[in-house]
Design a protein that fits this description.
Blueprint (H helix, E strand, L loop, with lengths): L2 H31 L1 H11 L6 H7 L6 H6 L1 H22 L2 H12 L3 H31 L1 H11 L6 H4 L8 H8 L1 H26 L1
Helix pairs in contact: 1-2, 1-11, 5-7, 6-7, 7-8
């Protein structure tokens, strides 16, 4: 990575931490001196966002199989041509040594690492193109065999059970903060001041 980009990313991270430290100081001061004001702000900001609307969009079953079988000659031919091109490119056109040299020059990693990653990419592309070619031949000549395979492979997995824990409100942390508001306020205030001083000193020395 270019040194200028590294310096910019590091300074951006430090500024982000400074903003977080200032926020921690303000919240700590509110908890220490005006805890009731923070409760009023929390009552306005705390809004329950349900995931059911997002779940509905994910629960829609979109079937593309009928369209592919209806136009099986076109889709099968295009899939076969694409798979043959990938096979031709990665088996005959790709110059491994030249590709490794170019990737090493661009990425700056060790040639052995780049070569291993390139071999894995080539192997994945060849296996995927072979599977695509077989699927295209089935679509063109024996689509009934592919349909039987799809009936066993296509299983609908619902996300409702997985998203159910997200629909349960949890206010344990909020109640704990309200119970020990002053103690947590002192901790946030001192921690924010300590972090802010260290980051500002680092910025001054770095500049």
């Amino acid at each position: 990575m270019h040194p200028l980009i590294q310096t910019w990313l590091l300074q951006s991270a430090v500024i982000f931490l400074i903003v977080g430290s200032v926020g921690g100081i303000l919240i700590g001061a509110l908890l220490l001196f005006r805890p009731q004001r923070l409760r009023a702000i929390s009552a306005v900001l705390d809004r329950w966002v349900s995931t059911r609307r997002f779940d509905r969009a994910l629960e829609r079953n979109i079937r593309l199989d009928p369209w592919f079988y209806r136009h099986r000659r076109i889709t099968g031919t295009l899939t076969a041509l694409g798979a043959l091109y990938v096979l031709y490119f990665f088996s005959l056109q790709l110059d491994r040594e030249q590709a490794i040299a170019g990737l090493v020059k661009r990425l700056g990693y060790h040639p052995l690492l780049v070569g291993g990653l390139l071999d894995a990419l080539v192997l994945s592309a060849l296996l995927g193109s072979l599977c695509g070619l077989l699927a295209a031949l089935f679509v063109l000549f024996r689509p009934s065999l592919l349909r039987d395979f799809e009936h066993g492979a296509n299983r609908w997995l619902s996300l409702r059970k997985s998203l159910k824990p997200l629909e349960i409100p949890r206010d344990n942390v909020q109640r704990y903060v309200e119970r020990y508001a002053r103690q947590i306020g002192i901790f946030l205030l001192l921690g924010g001041l300590y972090t802010l001083v260290l980051l500002l000193l680092w910025l001054v020395r770095g500049s």
